[in-house]
Automatic annotation (TrEMBL):
Organism: Filimonas zeae
Full-length numbering of the shown residues: 1 to 482 of 874
Record's protein name: Alanine--tRNA ligase
Key word Plastid present: no
Gene Ontology CC terms, in alphabetical order: cytoplasm
Annotated Alanyl-transfer RNA synthetases family profile domain residues: 2-482
Protein's job: Catalyzes the attachment of alanine to tRNA(Ala) in a two-step reaction: alanine is first activated by ATP to form Ala-AMP and then transferred to the acceptor end of tRNA(Ala). Also edits incorrectly charged Ser-tRNA(Ala) and Gly-tRNA(Ala) via its editing domain.
Comment text on domains: Consists of three domains; the N-terminal catalytic domain, the editing domain and the C-terminal C-Ala domain. The editing domain removes incorrectly charged amino acids, while the C-Ala domain, along with tRNA(Ala), serves as a bridge to cooperatively bring together the editing and aminoacylation centers thus stimulating deacylation of misacylated tRNAs.
Length: 482
Protein backbone atom coordinates (compact mmCIF):
# COMPACT_ATOMS: atom_id res chain seq x y z
CA UNK A 1 0.00 0.00 0.00
CA UNK A 2 1.24 3.45 -0.91
CA UNK A 3 1.85 5.38 2.31
CA UNK A 4 0.45 8.85 2.87
CA UNK A 5 4.01 10.20 2.94
CA UNK A 6 4.68 8.73 -0.51
CA UNK A 7 1.40 10.11 -1.84
CA UNK A 8 2.29 13.62 -0.67
CA UNK A 9 5.77 13.33 -2.16
CA UNK A 10 4.40 12.17 -5.51
CA UNK A 11 2.18 15.24 -5.68
CA UNK A 12 5.12 17.57 -5.05
CA UNK A 13 7.41 15.67 -7.43
CA UNK A 14 4.80 15.73 -10.16
CA UNK A 15 4.42 19.51 -10.06
CA UNK A 16 8.15 19.97 -9.73
CA UNK A 17 8.49 18.03 -12.99
CA UNK A 18 6.08 20.57 -14.52
CA UNK A 19 8.33 23.48 -13.59
CA UNK A 20 6.87 24.37 -10.17
CA UNK A 21 8.93 25.60 -7.24
CA UNK A 22 7.99 23.71 -4.08
CA UNK A 23 7.42 26.13 -1.17
CA UNK A 24 6.82 25.44 2.52
CA UNK A 25 3.40 25.63 4.14
CA UNK A 26 2.62 29.01 5.67
CA UNK A 27 1.85 28.89 9.41
CA UNK A 28 -1.66 27.78 10.27
CA UNK A 29 -2.04 30.89 12.41
CA UNK A 30 -2.46 34.13 10.47
CA UNK A 31 -0.91 37.11 12.21
CA UNK A 32 -1.02 39.89 9.66
CA UNK A 33 -4.48 39.77 8.15
CA UNK A 34 -7.38 41.33 10.06
CA UNK A 35 -9.89 39.37 7.97
CA UNK A 36 -8.56 35.91 8.82
CA UNK A 37 -7.52 34.13 12.04
CA UNK A 38 -6.36 30.82 10.60
CA UNK A 39 -5.19 29.72 7.19
CA UNK A 40 -8.22 28.08 5.57
CA UNK A 41 -6.91 27.49 2.04
CA UNK A 42 -3.63 27.11 0.21
CA UNK A 43 -4.06 30.41 -1.57
CA UNK A 44 -4.13 32.57 1.57
CA UNK A 45 -0.38 33.06 1.61
CA UNK A 46 -0.42 34.11 -2.05
CA UNK A 47 -3.21 36.66 -1.79
CA UNK A 48 -0.91 39.58 -2.51
CA UNK A 49 0.21 38.03 -5.78
CA UNK A 50 -3.35 37.82 -7.02
CA UNK A 51 -4.09 41.34 -5.89
CA UNK A 52 -0.97 42.56 -7.69
CA UNK A 53 0.53 43.96 -4.47
CA UNK A 54 3.62 41.82 -4.74
CA UNK A 55 5.41 39.85 -7.43
CA UNK A 56 5.95 36.13 -6.96
CA UNK A 57 9.47 34.73 -7.06
CA UNK A 58 8.26 32.10 -9.47
CA UNK A 59 5.15 32.02 -11.62
CA UNK A 60 4.62 28.31 -10.80
CA UNK A 61 4.55 27.04 -7.24
CA UNK A 62 3.18 24.02 -5.41
CA UNK A 63 2.99 22.97 -1.76
CA UNK A 64 1.05 21.28 0.98
CA UNK A 65 -0.63 23.81 3.25
CA UNK A 66 -1.82 23.26 6.81
CA UNK A 67 -5.38 24.54 6.95
CA UNK A 68 -7.90 24.97 9.75
CA UNK A 69 -11.64 25.35 9.14
CA UNK A 70 -13.25 26.06 12.47
CA UNK A 71 -14.33 29.68 12.23
CA UNK A 72 -15.59 32.32 9.87
CA UNK A 73 -16.62 31.53 6.29
CA UNK A 74 -15.49 27.92 6.54
CA UNK A 75 -16.55 26.20 9.75
CA UNK A 76 -16.62 22.41 9.52
CA UNK A 77 -16.38 21.72 13.27
CA UNK A 78 -19.79 20.11 13.67
CA UNK A 79 -19.12 17.70 10.80
CA UNK A 80 -15.89 16.42 12.28
CA UNK A 81 -16.02 12.87 13.58
CA UNK A 82 -19.65 12.55 12.53
CA UNK A 83 -18.77 12.32 8.85
CA UNK A 84 -15.59 10.68 7.59
CA UNK A 85 -14.01 13.41 5.48
CA UNK A 86 -14.28 16.86 7.08
CA UNK A 87 -11.47 17.71 9.46
CA UNK A 88 -10.68 20.71 11.57
CA UNK A 89 -7.04 20.73 10.49
CA UNK A 90 -6.18 19.24 7.10
CA UNK A 91 -3.52 19.49 4.46
CA UNK A 92 -4.44 21.17 1.23
CA UNK A 93 -2.18 20.18 -1.67
CA UNK A 94 -2.01 22.93 -4.25
CA UNK A 95 -0.45 24.11 -7.46
CA UNK A 96 -0.52 27.70 -8.66
CA UNK A 97 0.04 29.66 -11.80
CA UNK A 98 0.58 33.38 -11.32
CA UNK A 99 -0.14 34.72 -14.76
CA UNK A 100 1.54 31.68 -16.31
CA UNK A 101 -0.37 28.57 -17.54
CA UNK A 102 -4.16 28.48 -17.50
CA UNK A 103 -7.00 26.01 -18.03
CA UNK A 104 -5.41 23.80 -20.69
CA UNK A 105 -2.42 22.78 -18.57
CA UNK A 106 -4.18 22.85 -15.20
CA UNK A 107 -6.86 20.44 -16.36
CA UNK A 108 -4.52 18.18 -18.30
CA UNK A 109 -2.13 17.92 -15.35
CA UNK A 110 -4.78 17.21 -12.76
CA UNK A 111 -6.06 14.41 -14.99
CA UNK A 112 -2.56 13.09 -15.61
CA UNK A 113 -1.70 13.09 -11.90
CA UNK A 114 -4.89 11.35 -10.81
CA UNK A 115 -5.07 8.74 -13.54
CA UNK A 116 -1.44 8.11 -14.53
CA UNK A 117 0.53 8.73 -11.36
CA UNK A 118 -2.07 7.72 -8.77
CA UNK A 119 -3.83 5.39 -11.21
CA UNK A 120 -7.32 6.20 -10.00
CA UNK A 121 -10.08 4.42 -11.86
CA UNK A 122 -11.20 6.84 -14.60
CA UNK A 123 -14.61 5.33 -14.39
CA UNK A 124 -15.08 6.68 -10.88
CA UNK A 125 -14.15 10.29 -11.58
CA UNK A 126 -16.57 13.13 -12.24
CA UNK A 127 -15.84 16.78 -12.82
CA UNK A 128 -17.94 19.91 -12.49
CA UNK A 129 -17.74 23.18 -14.37
CA UNK A 130 -19.51 26.52 -13.85
CA UNK A 131 -22.88 26.63 -15.60
CA UNK A 132 -23.03 30.43 -15.80
CA UNK A 133 -25.41 32.83 -14.13
CA UNK A 134 -27.45 35.09 -16.37
CA UNK A 135 -28.73 37.26 -13.52
CA UNK A 136 -25.18 38.18 -12.61
CA UNK A 137 -24.00 38.22 -16.17
CA UNK A 138 -21.50 35.44 -15.54
CA UNK A 139 -20.71 33.27 -18.56
CA UNK A 140 -20.71 29.46 -18.59
CA UNK A 141 -17.16 28.12 -18.45
CA UNK A 142 -17.07 26.71 -21.99
CA UNK A 143 -13.28 26.72 -21.97
CA UNK A 144 -13.08 24.34 -19.02
CA UNK A 145 -15.78 22.18 -20.59
CA UNK A 146 -13.81 21.90 -23.81
CA UNK A 147 -10.59 21.09 -21.96
CA UNK A 148 -12.24 18.36 -19.91
CA UNK A 149 -13.83 16.88 -23.05
CA UNK A 150 -10.33 15.94 -24.17
CA UNK A 151 -10.00 13.58 -21.22
CA UNK A 152 -13.33 12.47 -19.87
CA UNK A 153 -16.68 11.37 -21.31
CA UNK A 154 -19.11 14.28 -21.63
CA UNK A 155 -21.71 12.72 -19.39
CA UNK A 156 -19.20 12.92 -16.56
CA UNK A 157 -18.82 16.67 -16.88
CA UNK A 158 -21.53 18.13 -14.68
CA UNK A 159 -22.73 21.70 -14.44
CA UNK A 160 -22.43 23.46 -11.10
CA UNK A 161 -23.97 26.67 -9.82
CA UNK A 162 -22.44 29.86 -8.55
CA UNK A 163 -22.31 28.64 -4.97
CA UNK A 164 -20.09 25.63 -5.74
CA UNK A 165 -18.38 26.65 -8.96
CA UNK A 166 -17.58 30.32 -8.82
CA UNK A 167 -14.90 31.69 -6.55
CA UNK A 168 -14.67 35.25 -5.25
CA UNK A 169 -12.25 36.67 -2.76
CA UNK A 170 -14.72 39.32 -1.61
CA UNK A 171 -17.22 41.80 -3.00
CA UNK A 172 -14.56 43.18 -5.30
CA UNK A 173 -11.28 41.81 -6.65
CA UNK A 174 -10.09 38.73 -8.52
CA UNK A 175 -12.67 36.02 -9.15
CA UNK A 176 -13.53 33.30 -11.60
CA UNK A 177 -15.10 29.96 -12.27
CA UNK A 178 -13.85 26.76 -10.71
CA UNK A 179 -13.92 23.13 -11.65
CA UNK A 180 -14.10 20.37 -9.06
CA UNK A 181 -13.11 16.74 -9.25
CA UNK A 182 -15.22 14.18 -7.38
CA UNK A 183 -14.62 10.48 -6.81
CA UNK A 184 -17.38 7.94 -6.54
CA UNK A 185 -16.13 5.32 -4.08
CA UNK A 186 -19.36 3.37 -3.74
CA UNK A 187 -19.44 -0.35 -4.38
CA UNK A 188 -20.14 -1.23 -8.02
CA UNK A 189 -23.70 -2.38 -7.46
CA UNK A 190 -24.76 0.91 -5.93
CA UNK A 191 -22.81 2.94 -8.45
CA UNK A 192 -24.85 1.70 -11.41
CA UNK A 193 -27.90 3.54 -10.11
CA UNK A 194 -26.32 6.88 -10.75
CA UNK A 195 -26.58 8.87 -13.87
CA UNK A 196 -24.42 11.93 -14.13
CA UNK A 197 -27.16 14.43 -13.58
CA UNK A 198 -28.01 13.11 -10.14
CA UNK A 199 -24.52 13.01 -8.70
CA UNK A 200 -24.57 15.20 -5.62
CA UNK A 201 -21.75 14.58 -3.26
CA UNK A 202 -23.60 15.85 -0.23
CA UNK A 203 -26.03 12.96 -0.57
CA UNK A 204 -23.60 10.10 -0.25
CA UNK A 205 -20.58 9.93 2.02
CA UNK A 206 -18.80 7.70 -0.48
CA UNK A 207 -18.98 10.25 -3.28
CA UNK A 208 -16.54 12.96 -2.30
CA UNK A 209 -15.03 16.11 -3.67
CA UNK A 210 -11.26 15.84 -3.73
CA UNK A 211 -9.89 18.69 -5.80
CA UNK A 212 -10.90 22.19 -6.72
CA UNK A 213 -9.31 24.09 -9.61
CA UNK A 214 -10.01 27.81 -9.52
CA UNK A 215 -9.46 29.90 -12.62
CA UNK A 216 -9.07 33.57 -11.75
CA UNK A 217 -9.84 35.47 -14.87
CA UNK A 218 -12.02 38.43 -13.88
CA UNK A 219 -11.74 41.45 -11.68
CA UNK A 220 -15.01 42.39 -9.98
CA UNK A 221 -15.28 46.20 -9.94
CA UNK A 222 -17.00 48.35 -7.32
CA UNK A 223 -20.06 48.80 -9.56
CA UNK A 224 -20.37 44.99 -9.80
CA UNK A 225 -19.15 44.70 -13.38
CA UNK A 226 -16.55 42.13 -14.44
CA UNK A 227 -13.40 43.11 -16.26
CA UNK A 228 -11.02 40.45 -17.64
CA UNK A 229 -7.79 40.30 -15.61
CA UNK A 230 -4.67 41.20 -17.57
CA UNK A 231 -2.90 38.19 -16.06
CA UNK A 232 -4.92 35.04 -15.42
CA UNK A 233 -4.15 32.76 -12.51
CA UNK A 234 -4.71 29.16 -11.44
CA UNK A 235 -5.29 28.26 -7.79
CA UNK A 236 -5.95 24.65 -6.89
CA UNK A 237 -6.62 22.83 -3.65
CA UNK A 238 -6.81 19.10 -3.06
CA UNK A 239 -7.72 17.57 0.31
CA UNK A 240 -4.72 15.39 1.17
CA UNK A 241 -6.50 13.10 3.66
CA UNK A 242 -9.33 12.51 1.15
CA UNK A 243 -6.85 11.73 -1.62
CA UNK A 244 -5.06 9.23 0.63
CA UNK A 245 -8.34 7.58 1.49
CA UNK A 246 -9.22 7.16 -2.18
CA UNK A 247 -5.78 5.84 -3.15
CA UNK A 248 -5.59 3.49 -0.16
CA UNK A 249 -9.10 2.25 -0.97
CA UNK A 250 -10.58 3.01 2.45
CA UNK A 251 -14.13 4.04 3.21
CA UNK A 252 -13.14 6.66 5.77
CA UNK A 253 -10.26 9.11 6.10
CA UNK A 254 -9.77 7.75 9.62
CA UNK A 255 -8.86 4.32 8.22
CA UNK A 256 -5.81 5.71 6.42
CA UNK A 257 -2.32 5.83 7.89
CA UNK A 258 -2.81 9.57 8.45
CA UNK A 259 -4.98 8.72 11.48
CA UNK A 260 -4.45 5.09 12.44
CA UNK A 261 -1.38 5.89 14.57
CA UNK A 262 -3.21 8.20 16.96
CA UNK A 263 -6.34 6.03 16.95
CA UNK A 264 -4.31 2.96 17.92
CA UNK A 265 -2.60 4.93 20.67
CA UNK A 266 -5.94 6.16 21.98
CA UNK A 267 -7.17 2.55 22.07
CA UNK A 268 -4.15 1.55 24.07
CA UNK A 269 -4.42 4.41 26.53
CA UNK A 270 -8.17 4.18 27.07
CA UNK A 271 -8.53 0.41 26.86
CA UNK A 272 -11.47 0.89 24.46
CA UNK A 273 -11.70 -0.37 20.92
CA UNK A 274 -12.38 1.75 17.82
CA UNK A 275 -15.07 0.01 15.82
CA UNK A 276 -15.77 2.26 12.79
CA UNK A 277 -19.44 2.67 13.72
CA UNK A 278 -21.55 5.72 14.48
CA UNK A 279 -21.66 5.14 18.22
CA UNK A 280 -20.60 7.98 20.50
CA UNK A 281 -17.53 5.99 21.38
CA UNK A 282 -16.47 5.70 17.73
CA UNK A 283 -17.18 9.39 17.15
CA UNK A 284 -15.01 10.12 20.19
CA UNK A 285 -12.05 8.27 18.64
CA UNK A 286 -12.44 10.22 15.40
CA UNK A 287 -12.88 13.56 17.15
CA UNK A 288 -9.81 12.99 19.34
CA UNK A 289 -7.56 11.96 16.47
CA UNK A 290 -8.77 14.94 14.46
CA UNK A 291 -8.66 17.58 17.19
CA UNK A 292 -5.19 16.71 18.49
CA UNK A 293 -3.79 17.57 15.06
CA UNK A 294 -5.45 20.98 15.04
CA UNK A 295 -4.32 21.68 18.60
CA UNK A 296 -0.72 20.49 18.15
CA UNK A 297 0.02 22.21 14.86
CA UNK A 298 -1.59 25.46 15.95
CA UNK A 299 0.40 25.61 19.17
CA UNK A 300 3.57 24.70 17.26
CA UNK A 301 2.85 27.66 14.96
CA UNK A 302 2.72 30.01 17.92
CA UNK A 303 -0.90 30.23 19.01
CA UNK A 304 -1.30 29.26 22.64
CA UNK A 305 -4.73 28.40 23.97
CA UNK A 306 -6.16 31.47 25.68
CA UNK A 307 -9.35 33.19 26.68
CA UNK A 308 -9.95 35.27 23.59
CA UNK A 309 -9.85 35.27 19.83
CA UNK A 310 -7.84 32.60 18.05
CA UNK A 311 -6.53 31.26 21.35
CA UNK A 312 -10.04 30.61 22.61
CA UNK A 313 -10.92 28.72 19.46
CA UNK A 314 -8.01 26.37 20.18
CA UNK A 315 -9.04 26.05 23.81
CA UNK A 316 -12.59 25.23 22.72
CA UNK A 317 -11.38 22.50 20.37
CA UNK A 318 -9.20 21.11 23.11
CA UNK A 319 -12.06 21.08 25.65
CA UNK A 320 -14.36 19.52 23.11
CA UNK A 321 -11.83 16.67 22.75
CA UNK A 322 -11.46 16.35 26.54
CA UNK A 323 -15.23 16.10 26.91
CA UNK A 324 -15.28 13.31 24.32
CA UNK A 325 -12.78 11.10 26.14
CA UNK A 326 -14.05 11.98 29.59
CA UNK A 327 -17.69 11.21 28.83
CA UNK A 328 -17.56 8.68 26.00
CA UNK A 329 -14.30 6.78 26.53
CA UNK A 330 -14.72 7.01 30.29
CA UNK A 331 -11.11 8.13 30.62
CA UNK A 332 -10.63 10.70 33.37
CA UNK A 333 -6.96 11.66 33.06
CA UNK A 334 -5.09 13.82 30.55
CA UNK A 335 -4.97 11.86 27.32
CA UNK A 336 -4.36 14.24 24.44
CA UNK A 337 -0.82 15.25 25.37
CA UNK A 338 0.24 11.61 25.05
CA UNK A 339 -0.61 11.74 21.34
CA UNK A 340 1.60 14.74 20.54
CA UNK A 341 4.87 12.74 20.22
CA UNK A 342 3.13 10.35 17.80
CA UNK A 343 2.14 13.23 15.54
CA UNK A 344 5.55 14.84 15.89
CA UNK A 345 7.25 11.67 14.65
CA UNK A 346 4.70 11.07 11.92
CA UNK A 347 5.08 14.57 10.46
CA UNK A 348 8.76 15.13 11.17
CA UNK A 349 9.75 15.23 7.50
CA UNK A 350 6.97 17.48 6.29
CA UNK A 351 6.19 19.79 9.26
CA UNK A 352 9.34 19.69 11.42
CA UNK A 353 8.11 22.55 13.62
CA UNK A 354 6.09 20.13 15.73
CA UNK A 355 8.97 17.71 16.19
CA UNK A 356 11.26 20.59 17.15
CA UNK A 357 8.90 21.72 19.91
CA UNK A 358 7.38 18.42 20.93
CA UNK A 359 8.09 18.79 24.64
CA UNK A 360 6.76 22.31 24.76
CA UNK A 361 3.58 21.48 22.86
CA UNK A 362 2.94 18.36 24.97
CA UNK A 363 3.39 20.39 28.12
CA UNK A 364 0.98 23.12 27.03
CA UNK A 365 -1.63 20.51 26.06
CA UNK A 366 -1.18 18.66 29.31
CA UNK A 367 -1.57 21.83 31.40
CA UNK A 368 -4.69 22.73 29.50
CA UNK A 369 -6.13 19.27 30.00
CA UNK A 370 -5.33 19.27 33.71
CA UNK A 371 -6.90 22.69 34.20
CA UNK A 372 -10.08 21.70 32.41
CA UNK A 373 -10.29 18.27 34.02
CA UNK A 374 -10.20 19.97 37.42
CA UNK A 375 -13.13 22.22 36.62
CA UNK A 376 -14.91 19.60 34.49
CA UNK A 377 -15.62 17.45 37.54
CA UNK A 378 -16.89 20.38 39.56
CA UNK A 379 -18.76 21.77 36.59
CA UNK A 380 -20.49 18.45 35.98
CA UNK A 381 -21.62 18.45 39.62
CA UNK A 382 -22.82 22.03 39.29
CA UNK A 383 -24.70 21.32 36.08
CA UNK A 384 -26.50 18.43 37.80
CA UNK A 385 -27.95 20.93 40.26
CA UNK A 386 -28.78 23.35 37.48
CA UNK A 387 -30.51 20.57 35.54
CA UNK A 388 -32.58 19.62 38.59
CA UNK A 389 -33.54 23.26 39.13
CA UNK A 390 -34.53 23.64 35.48
CA UNK A 391 -36.97 20.72 35.50
CA UNK A 392 -40.06 22.93 35.58
CA UNK A 393 -39.04 25.50 33.00
CA UNK A 394 -37.28 22.92 30.78
CA UNK A 395 -34.69 25.62 30.13
CA UNK A 396 -31.27 26.33 31.55
CA UNK A 397 -31.11 30.07 32.16
CA UNK A 398 -28.53 32.15 30.29
CA UNK A 399 -27.05 33.24 33.58
CA UNK A 400 -26.43 29.59 34.59
CA UNK A 401 -24.88 28.75 31.23
CA UNK A 402 -22.67 31.78 31.72
CA UNK A 403 -21.67 30.66 35.20
CA UNK A 404 -20.69 27.26 33.79
CA UNK A 405 -18.68 29.02 31.13
CA UNK A 406 -17.10 31.63 33.34
CA UNK A 407 -16.39 29.63 36.47
CA UNK A 408 -15.99 26.08 35.21
CA UNK A 409 -14.72 26.71 31.71
CA UNK A 410 -17.61 25.02 29.92
CA UNK A 411 -17.83 26.20 26.34
CA UNK A 412 -21.46 26.90 25.43
CA UNK A 413 -21.66 23.84 23.17
CA UNK A 414 -20.78 21.54 26.06
CA UNK A 415 -23.56 22.99 28.23
CA UNK A 416 -25.88 22.67 25.28
CA UNK A 417 -24.98 19.01 24.78
CA UNK A 418 -25.56 18.10 28.42
CA UNK A 419 -28.81 20.05 28.41
CA UNK A 420 -30.09 18.15 25.40
CA UNK A 421 -29.15 14.84 27.00
CA UNK A 422 -31.49 15.89 29.79
CA UNK A 423 -34.18 17.03 27.37
CA UNK A 424 -33.62 20.66 28.29
CA UNK A 425 -32.88 23.74 26.27
CA UNK A 426 -30.44 26.54 27.00
CA UNK A 427 -31.42 30.21 26.82
CA UNK A 428 -28.82 31.12 24.24
CA UNK A 429 -29.88 34.77 23.96
CA UNK A 430 -29.59 35.14 27.72
CA UNK A 431 -26.13 33.57 27.58
CA UNK A 432 -25.09 35.91 24.76
CA UNK A 433 -26.30 38.92 26.77
CA UNK A 434 -24.18 37.84 29.76
CA UNK A 435 -21.23 37.37 27.42
CA UNK A 436 -21.70 40.82 25.97
CA UNK A 437 -21.57 42.39 29.41
CA UNK A 438 -18.44 40.42 30.19
CA UNK A 439 -16.88 41.60 26.94
CA UNK A 440 -17.52 45.24 27.81
CA UNK A 441 -15.89 44.70 31.17
CA UNK A 442 -12.80 43.02 29.75
CA UNK A 443 -12.47 45.60 27.01
CA UNK A 444 -12.33 48.35 29.56
CA UNK A 445 -9.84 46.34 31.61
CA UNK A 446 -7.38 45.60 28.83
CA UNK A 447 -7.39 48.73 26.70
CA UNK A 448 -3.65 49.19 26.91
CA UNK A 449 -1.25 49.99 24.13
CA UNK A 450 2.41 49.57 24.93
CA UNK A 451 4.54 51.01 22.16
CA UNK A 452 4.86 48.54 19.32
CA UNK A 453 3.20 45.69 21.19
CA UNK A 454 -0.54 45.61 21.42
CA UNK A 455 -3.08 43.24 22.79
CA UNK A 456 -5.36 42.77 19.84
CA UNK A 457 -9.06 42.69 20.55
CA UNK A 458 -9.83 40.19 17.84
CA UNK A 459 -12.51 38.75 20.06
CA UNK A 460 -15.19 40.18 17.79
CA UNK A 461 -14.32 37.34 15.46
CA UNK A 462 -14.50 34.56 18.04
CA UNK A 463 -17.69 32.80 18.80
CA UNK A 464 -17.60 32.93 22.57
CA UNK A 465 -15.42 35.37 24.35
CA UNK A 466 -14.63 36.28 27.87
CA UNK A 467 -12.29 35.75 30.70
CA UNK A 468 -12.44 32.67 32.80
CA UNK A 469 -11.17 32.47 36.31
CA UNK A 470 -9.95 28.94 36.11
CA UNK A 471 -6.57 29.33 37.58
CA UNK A 472 -4.30 32.04 38.80
CA UNK A 473 -2.42 32.00 35.52
CA UNK A 474 -3.93 34.15 32.83
CA UNK A 475 -2.29 33.96 29.43
CA UNK A 476 -2.46 37.01 27.25
CA UNK A 477 -1.41 36.52 23.66
CA UNK A 478 0.57 39.43 22.29
CA UNK A 479 1.11 40.26 18.68
CA UNK A 480 3.55 42.60 17.11
CA UNK A 481 1.78 45.60 15.65
CA UNK A 482 1.64 45.51 11.86
P1 LIG B 1 -16.67 20.36 0.88
O1 LIG B 1 -17.71 20.73 -0.15
O2 LIG B 1 -16.37 18.91 0.95
O3 LIG B 1 -16.93 21.00 2.22
P2 LIG B 1 -15.17 22.61 -0.06
O4 LIG B 1 -15.82 22.83 -1.39
O5 LIG B 1 -15.62 23.45 1.08
O6 LIG B 1 -15.29 21.04 0.36
P3 LIG B 1 -12.73 23.80 -1.06
O7 LIG B 1 -12.85 25.12 -0.40
O8 LIG B 1 -13.05 23.69 -2.50
O9 LIG B 1 -13.59 22.73 -0.20
O10 LIG B 1 -11.25 23.25 -0.73
C1 LIG B 1 -10.48 22.46 -1.63
C2 LIG B 1 -10.38 21.01 -1.17
O11 LIG B 1 -10.00 20.90 0.20
C3 LIG B 1 -11.68 20.25 -1.25
O12 LIG B 1 -11.90 19.78 -2.56
C4 LIG B 1 -11.46 19.12 -0.26
O13 LIG B 1 -10.79 18.04 -0.86
C5 LIG B 1 -10.57 19.73 0.78
N1 LIG B 1 -11.32 20.09 2.00
C6 LIG B 1 -12.14 21.14 2.18
N2 LIG B 1 -12.61 21.21 3.44
C7 LIG B 1 -12.05 20.16 4.09
C8 LIG B 1 -12.11 19.70 5.44
N3 LIG B 1 -12.83 20.33 6.37
N4 LIG B 1 -11.40 18.59 5.77
C9 LIG B 1 -10.66 17.95 4.84
N5 LIG B 1 -10.55 18.34 3.56
C10 LIG B 1 -11.23 19.44 3.19
MG1 LIG C 1 -16.79 22.98 2.72
MG1 LIG D 1 -17.61 21.71 -2.07
MG1 LIG E 1 -14.90 22.99 -3.34
Amino acid sequence: MLTSAAIRQQFLDFFKSKGHVIVPSAPIVVKNDPTLMFTNAGMNQFKDYFLGNRNPESTRVADTQKCLRVSGKHNDLEEVGVDTYHHTMFEMLGNWSFGDYFKTEAIAWSWELLTEVYKLDKDRLYVTIFEGDSKENLPKDEEAYNEWKKWIAEDRILLGNKKDNFWEMGDTGPCGPCSEIHVDCRPDAERKLVDGSTLVNADNPQVIEIWNNVFMQFNRMKDGSLVPLPAKHVDTGMGFERLVRVIQGKSSNYDTDVFTGTIAATEKISGKKYDYSDTREAVAFRVISDHIRAISFTIADGQLPSNTGAGYIIRRILRRAVRYYYSYLDYKQPLLHQLVPILAAQFEQVFPELHQQVDFVSKVVREEEEAFLRTLEKGLKRIEDIVTGAAASKTIAGKDAFELYDTYGFPFDLTNLIASENKLQVDEAGFAAEMEQQKQRSRAATAIDTEDWVVLHDDAKAEFIGYEHLSTKTRVTKYRKV
